[in-house]
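Please fill in the sequence for the structure shown.

STRUCTURE ENCODING:
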């Protein structure tokens, strides 16, 4: 799969009279996994919405292969970029299979028909997310975790080179969180898919991301490798939390241990 570039230049964006992002610059590493972290309301989701063309910038621009994304057609954007928003809404009564099949729509022209390749893409997406047995069930009957996996399956069915996910592990228990992040890592390694995701868990972000972006107050506080970004100083500045950073015994990546106000002494 050919890697597409995704770049943010001087981006300012917000809602109504409220400005959230202020002059951000960010170059997403093609073929790598980028995780965006930060405290609530720091602008993580606003950045992802702007990068995916859902939110028009007040200033600056988002470029895909050097072209302004907000001047590209929605269909063209959907051919190169898959998106899992924070709170997606499915049409009432739609089945899992039908929803995942919608991931194929950007690849169809007015006269094109459903093909074997479409069937295979949907089947692979269902298999990868462990949702085959849910295919005939209505999406609104599923648990939160099941629905999240189905939405990820729809994004995978698009088979895009760029994949943006806003909190893809929301509603998932820890075992399914690891399954989803392993799935995204496999997709990145097998197909070279560029993955950009917002995550709340700093330790999972540091374990799975090649590139870590820390945001604070609508600005980029730090970006780079997890070793460079996940520091006690960053955690204190971005989250207002004292912590200790140690090596993850499994991955060797940095791991954050929070220090609360009530420190429990070892017995």
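FILLED IN BY: designer on duty
SEQUENCE:
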């Amino acid at each position: 799969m050919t890697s597409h570039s995704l770049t943010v230049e001087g981006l300012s964006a917000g809602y109504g009279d409220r400005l959230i992002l202020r002059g951000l610059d960010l170059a997403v590493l093609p073929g790598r996994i980028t995780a965006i972290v930060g405290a609530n309301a720091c602008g993580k989701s606003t950045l992802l919405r702007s990068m995916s063309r859902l939110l028009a910038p007040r200033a600056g621009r988002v470029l895909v292969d050097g072209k302004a994304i907000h001047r590209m057609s929605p269909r063209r954007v959907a051919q190169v970029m898959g998106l899992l928003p924070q709170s997606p809404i499915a049409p009432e009564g739609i089945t899992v299979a039908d929803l995942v099949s919608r991931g194929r729509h950007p690849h169809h022209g007015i006269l094109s028909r459903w093909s074997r390749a479409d069937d295979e893409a949907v089947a692979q997406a269902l298999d990868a997310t462990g949702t085959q047995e849910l295919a005939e069930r209505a999406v609104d009957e599923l648990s939160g975790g099941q629905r999240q996996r189905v939405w990820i399956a729809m994004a995978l069915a698009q088979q895009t080179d760029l994949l943006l996910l806003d909190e893809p592990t929301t509603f998932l228990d820890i075992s399914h969180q690891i399954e989803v992040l392993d799935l995204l890592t496999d997709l990145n390694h097998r197909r070279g898919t560029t993955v950009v995701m917002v995550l709340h868990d700093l330790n999972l972000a540091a374990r799975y991301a090649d590139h870590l972006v820390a945001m604070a107050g609508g600005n980029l506080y730090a970006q780079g490798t997890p070793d460079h970004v996940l520091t006690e100083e960053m955690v204190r500045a971005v989250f207002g939390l004292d912590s200790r950073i140690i090596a993850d015994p499994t991955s060797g990546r940095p791991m954050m241990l929070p220090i609360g106000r009530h420190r429990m002494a070892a017995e």
